[in-house]
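Most newcomers find our protein records easier to grasp once they have seen one. A learned vocabulary of local backbone shapes supplies the integers on the structure line. Here is such a record, shown just as it appears in the course material:
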Amino acid sequence: MKKAALTTLLLFTGLILFPLLLNAQTANTTDTMTVHEVHNALSDSMFNGVLIDVRTKEEYAEGHIKGSLNIPVGTLHEHIEKLRSLETNGLVVYCRTGRRAAKAIDLLLQAGVENIIYMKGDMTEWKKEQLPMVVNDKTGQN
């Protein structure tokens, strides 16, 4: 009797947790690059990826990676078609600490955009490593 109850409990727990595990994997289905790998790729003429900074306009103006597009995560849904057309060479997504980037990646994946690269460490690590930034330039604003 105890075995049957334990088996039922495990089966029930598995049925509840399985959908949660599927959703938790969403952001993990992307490739990752470290900040140094992104920095080095930007110096490589063969790299054609598009950097997407999903922070606010104010954060972007305070310092961002040269050539990145600023598309705040709250407005990402308005830019899906544009991003879908740019994904061929890879979309490198970053924010300040990773939370908004994970949300943006999930939204993009749900919209069918698949060629996404997450910049591990985000701007916090980029600044810590003293990699070059553009300050007070709003050319990437949308």
